[in-house]
Structures are given as structure tokens and as C-alpha cells.
Amino acid sequence: MLPTLLLARLLAFTQAGTADDDLPAIIAQARAGLGNSAYESLRPVLLRCDLLANRLDAMRADFVGSDDDRLALDGTMAFLEGRNDAALALYRDALKARRKRLGKRKLFLPDEHGMFFLLALLRANDAALHAELQTGIEAALFELPEVANSAGWRAIQAMLWMAQGLEVKAQAEVMQLLHYGSPGPFGDACVALAEYAVDPALSRRRAGALDAAFQTLATAAPLAARVLAEILAAIESDPKPYLTWLDTPAAACGVTFTRLIAVRQPWERALESLDALLDTRATKATAAKAPRRSKRLA
């Protein structure tokens, strides 16, 4: 198959979640061509396939790219291994390097790396990081060419609102997202995760659709399937099939996605966000009142 046709098939998977039975053969053929200049354009999308397949060693072995891409990859490796603080440091360095390389301020880490960065910020369970989260979401959405591609990012926005105690706003966002087209396997997983975070009852009503998506992705994109399996294990009367699958090497991960947001009462989340806001304002006010150094004449 020509490289252009291979690329089209791989993009159909990473960007729209189309996982036909011959996808493993397509990926194998594309990978076999690496090293041939005609196939090098496939490398970035193959790296995304490796990530979605939870093949982190292959992703690292296949990597060729810029320093910021390398830092983002290392950040994702750290996040998925459960090393959240290390992941945040690497992601921030990657974003700084990316801005410098491209000469732009309003941008974010692309694709799954950017989503994992935001999820790592959520996982930190620190209201003081909510402003950084919001800035990242807005920058990511600013770069997207089509609204339909934004569902995964907007799902993280809904989860942020949940963490801030804005349940009504989060639920309204999730209900809209369920009508969007697929933004790709992990974007779909983020939408399902936001739905579960807003109200597990919503997930229960869609259990059949979630299971069908899980069955489709379990082989092609086990990292995305892991999110769905965690949700299904929590909502189904018989969680054993999902728990059994989660114990397999393909699903190995140092993060429990359904626990990214600490479960607290709405007033507790709102109070924490208010405290963080007041602390930020107090810091700015103190800085504004600091005496300015006078200039000495020579």
C-alpha cells in the first residue's frame, strides 16, 4: 500500500477512531517502511498509534523529533507510570521549548500529550493549578481547526468545572459533547470519563455503547480502552470481565483515570477554588504594594 494510503488509514484511526480489522497489518506495514524517506511522514502518527496501544517502549524506540516533542514524550511516560510531579515538570519544559521553537505564545502541547498534561494537572488535586489548566485548555482549543475535534479537550474542561464545584455547567457541557463526532480514541475516552465524573448514572444509561467502544478499542487502543474499562467496572453489576482485562499487560498503567478528580461535596470543591483565588489575589496585592527601588543618580 502506498505511504499516502497508509497515512490516510492511520489518521482515520487516530483522529476519528476508525479501527478496522486490518489496522494491525496497516500499522505493521507502515512501521516496516520507517527508514525509507517515503515513509518518514508516517512516523508522527505511528508514535500516536504506539501510545494508544500502550506500547511505550516502541514509542520511545521509534521516536525522532524535536526537543520539545522528546520532553512531551518523556512527560507522558512519567504520567502513565504514576510519576505525576515529574510529568508536570517535563510537560512544562516541553511547552516552554515548543513556544520557543515556534515563536508563539498561545499554543499548547498537541494531541494526547497535551491531554495527558491537563489530566496530570487535574490529578495533582490542587486548586492553585486550575488557572494553568484553564489557560492550557483555551490555548489547545484556539489551535483546533474544527469544533468537532475539540470534544476531548472540552471534556477535560468539564472535569475542571467539576473539580471547581460547577456541576451544572459541567453537566451541560457533557450533554453537548455526547452529540459530537468522534475526536479519536482517547478523545472519546475523555468524553466518557467526563460523563462519569459528572454523574455515574449517565454512564449507566450508556453502558451498552461504552462496552461496544471498549470491545472495539481493547486491541487497537488499549490505553483508551483502559479508561472505558475502569468506568464499566464501576457501573456494571458484573465488573469481573473488565477487572480481569485491567490486570492484563496490555492495560498496564500507573494511573487510575476514574480517580483523577477527588470526590468531595460540591461546597468543599467550591470553597477550595475560592481559597485558591483569594490566595492568588492576595499575592498580587502584596506584590503591587512592595516599595519600588529608587534609581540613584550617577
Main attributes of the structure:
single chain; 298 residues; mainly alpha; 16 helices; 68% helix; 0% strand; disordered C terminus
Condensed summary:
The chain has 298 residues and is mainly alpha-helical.
How does this model look, in words?
With 298 residues, the chain is mainly α. Among the domains are: 65-143, no CATH class; 171-265. It is 68% helix and 0% strand. Helix 3 runs antiparallel to helix 4 (56-62) and helix 5 crosses helix 7 (111-123).
What is the overall number of helices? 16
Number of strands: 0
Helix content: 55-70%
Class from helix and strand fractions: mainly alpha
Radius of gyration: 21 Å
- In terms of per-residue confidence, which ranges show pLDDT below 50 for 5 or more consecutive residues? 293-298
* Main β sheet profile: none
Termini Cα gap: 75 Å
User: What is the typical, i.e. mean, pLDDT?
Assistant: 87
Quote the beta fraction.
under 5%
Secondary-structure map with pairings?
Blueprint: H1 3-16, H2 23-32, H3 43-52, H4 56-62, H5 67-80, H6 84-102, H7 111-123, H8 130-143, H9 151-163, H10 167-177, H11 185-198, H12 200-205, H13 207-220, H14 222-235, H15 240-246, H16 266-289
Helix pairs in contact: 1-2, 1-3, 3-4, 5-6, 5-7, 6-7, 7-8, 7-9, 8-9, 9-10, 9-11, 10-11, 11-14, 13-14, 14-15
